[in-house]
Design goal:
The structure is a homodimer. By secondary structure, chain A is of the alpha/beta class. In chain A, strands 3-2-1-4-5-6-11 form a 7-stranded parallel sheet, with helices on both faces. In chain A, strands 7-10 form a two-stranded parallel sheet. In chain A, strands 8-13 form a two-stranded parallel ribbon. In chain A, helix 7 packs across helix 8. The first copy, chain A, is globular. The N and C termini of chain A lie far apart (45 Å). At the A-B interface, helix 3 and helix 4 of A face helix 3 and helix 4 of B.
C-alpha cells in the first residue's frame, strides 16, 4: 500500500447501515487499525447495532454532530484520514428535507474537509452515490460523466462532491469519492428499499414496485460495497471518483420476484404502483478493477442470504419498524 | 410580461453590493413593486448604504439570517418571488471558509427554496457566478457546459445551483439561475477586485495584478448586471440558467492600466505578482439577447465613471477600508 500509512481512521456517520458495516469489515480485516466513529446516533437502535464492536479496544464511539467543529477538530487532530458516511435520512414525506440535507450532508462535509486540510490528513473519502449521475441515459455511467442529479438526496451528494473537489483543487486535500450502487444486506433499516420489501414479504404484506417494474438499477451486497470503499481509501488516486457496483442491472419486478421467492411467498403479493418516476440507474465499475476489487456476493444469492438474516432476526426489525 | 405577476419580491442578501444595486434599480424602474430585503447586515456600513431607500414606503429591511426558517417563512408567505444574492464573503485568508460558505450559500439557499415550494412562489432566482464553469478552456462558456468550478466560492455557488435544480426537477419550483461576469461600480466593497485596485490607485499605492497579467475575464458595470438579472427574473424560462456578461475579455494588465489612467496615476504603479493561478474566465451571453437585454455601459467607460465615483466619495471607502 505504498507510503500510505493510515493507522487511525475517523468514520463520520459510522453508526449507519453502510458506516457500521465498513467499521466491522475494517476491524475484522486489519488488526492494527484504530477507528473512531462520530455519529449523531439519531436512528433508533443505532448504538445497539454497534454492540458487537463496542468492547473492541481499537474502537471508539463518539456521539455528536459532524457540523460541530468543537467536536470534530479534537477527533480529527488524532487521526490520519477521514471517511464520511454521514447523511440525512430521506423521508420523502414532503417535509422540509432540503435544509436538513444541506446541514448534515453539505455543511457536515465542509467541516470535515476543513479539518482534513488543517491536520493535513493522508486521505479524505466522501461516500457518494451512483444516483448523482441522474437517471440512466444510454450506457452505464462512467466517472467522467456529467452529474445531473434529479432527486434531492442525489443533488445533495453531488453538491458535497463539488465542495470536496474544491478542497482538492484549491488546498490539495487528498480527496477520494465513491459512487456506489444501492446497498442491501443485514441490518439495513426497514425504511430503505430492499429491507422494506423483504420485511413486507416476510410479513405476508403486499410488495410494491415503483412504476411498471421495468426500471433497473444495480444492487450490491453491503459487505462487497464497504470492501470496495475500503479499497478506494487505501488504493485510490486522490482527486478521483470511483463507481462501486457490480455492473448488473436488476429491474424492480425482478427484485420483488426474487425476494418473494426467497421468502417462500406467492408472486401474487407483488403489486406495480404504476406511479413514480420509473428511473433506471447504472454505474460502470471498471475503474475498480485495477484496485483489485470485485464483488463476491452476487444477485440473487445475496438476496437469499439477506432474507435468511431477516428471517432469523425478526425481533431486530420488528423493534425498528417505526413505519 | 405574460401572466407573471410579481408585485412583492423578497431579496435575500439585498444589502450587499449587487443586491442593493438591484433593489435601487427596481424601485427606480417599477412604481408598483414592493421589496423586502432580508440581510444579516454583517458588512460594515451595509445599512447606511441603503439610507437612500429606507424611507421609501415600497421598501422594507429585515435584519436576519437566510438560514433562519422562523425569519424566512413569515416573509416568504407575503411575497410572490424570491431572489437570492446572499453569499458569504470570501476572505481568502485561509480561515475556515468552507463551513461558513456552506451555511450561508447552500443551507441558506435550501431554506429559501423550501419556502418557495411551500408558498408556491411564481419565481425563484438564484444569483450565481460565471466562475462556476471553472477556468476558460477554449470558447467562452455556454449555459449547457459542464460546471467544473476550481475555487471554493465558485464551488459553493455550483453546489447551490445543484440544490436549486433539484427543487425544480423534483418539486416544480420555478427556478432561474444567473451566472454573471465580475461586477464593478459605485459602492463596491474595497476588498473586492476592481474597487480594491481603484482605491489603491487613488491612494497612490501599488496596483497588483495576479500572475503575468495576461489572464482575462469579463467585467460588467453593476447597473447593467442587475438590469440583466431583473430581465431574467421577469422574462426568463424557469429551469434555465442565463449567462449575464458583455462578452468582452479584459486582461488583468489592461484592467490595471485603464484604472491607473483614469486615476491620473503613472503606469509604474502597476506590479505583476507572477503568482496566483492566472485563470481566465468568460461567459457567452447570447441567451440574454432574446430577453431584450444588452449592456449600456461599456469598458473602459464604466471604469472611468466608477473611478469618478470613488474620487467623489473618498469618505465612503476610507470608512469601509478595514484591510
Amino acid at each position: 500500500m505504498g507510503k500510505l500509512r493510515i493507522r487511525h481512521l475517523l468514520v463520520a456517520g459510522g453508526a449507519g447501515f453502510l458506516g457500521s458495516a465498513f467499521v466491522r469489515d475494517r476491524l475484522r480485516a486489519d488488526p492494527e487499525i484504530l477507528i473512531t466513529v462520530l455519529d449523531a446516533l439519531r436512528r433508533p437502535g443505532a448504538q445497539a447495532d454497534l454492540a458487537d464492536v463496542l468492547d473492541d479496544r481499537r474502537f471508539k464511539l463518539v456521539q455528536g454532530d459532524v457540523r460541530d467543529q468543537a467536536v470534530v477538530d479534537p477527533l480529527a487532530g488524532t487521526v490520519d484520514a477521514i471517511i464520511n458516511f454521514a447523511s440525512e435520512e430521506f423521508t420523502g414525506s414532503g417535509a422540509a428535507d432540503g435544509p436538513a440535507f444541506a446541514r448534515t450532508d453539505i455543511e457536515g462535509t465542509a467541516v470535515l474537509l476543513e479539518a482534513a486540510r488543517k491536520f493535513q490528513h493522508q486521505r479524505f473519502l466522501l461516500v457518494s452515490s451512483g444516483e448523482v449521475y441522474g437517471p440512466l441515459k444510454s450506457a452505464p455511467n462512467r466517472e467522467e460523466d456529467r452529474l445531473t442529479p434529479r432527486s434531492l438526496p442525489a443533488s445533495v451528494r453531488a453538491a458535497a462532491e463539488t465542495l470536496a473537489g474544491a478542497y482538492h483543487a484549491s488546498y490539495g486535500v487528498p480527496v477520494l469519492i465513491t459512487r456506489a450502487a444501492g446497498a442491501y444486506g443485514p441490518r439495513q433499516p426497514v425504511n430503505q428499499l430492499v429491507a422494506s420489501l423483504i420485511t413486507r414479504a416476510l410479513s405476508g404484506m403486499t410488495v410494491f414496485v415503483e412504476g411498471n417494474g421495468s426500471a433497473t438499477r444495480d444492487y450490491l451486497h453491503v459487505d462487497d460495497e464497504v470492501a470496495g470503499i475500503a479499497r478506494v481509501l487505501w488504493k485510490g488516486e486522490p482527486g478521483t471518483a470511483y463507481n462501486v457496483g457490480d455492473g448488473v442491472q436488476i429491474s424492480g419486478s425482478q427484485l420483488a420476484d426474487t425476494i418473494l421467492e426467497a421468502c417462500g411467498k406467492p408472486s401474487s403479493l407483488k403489486r406495480l404502483t404504476r406511479e413514480g418516476p420509473g428511473w433506471s440507474y447504472a454505474v460502470d465499475p471498471r475503474r475498480m478493477r485495477p484496485l483489485g476489487w470485485d464483488p463476491l456476493v452476487r444477485f440473487p444469492d445475496g438476496i437469499r442470504l439477506t432474507v435468511d438474516w431477516y428471517r432469523r432476526n425478526e425481533s431486530w426489525w420488528r423493534l425498528r419498524d417505526v413505519a
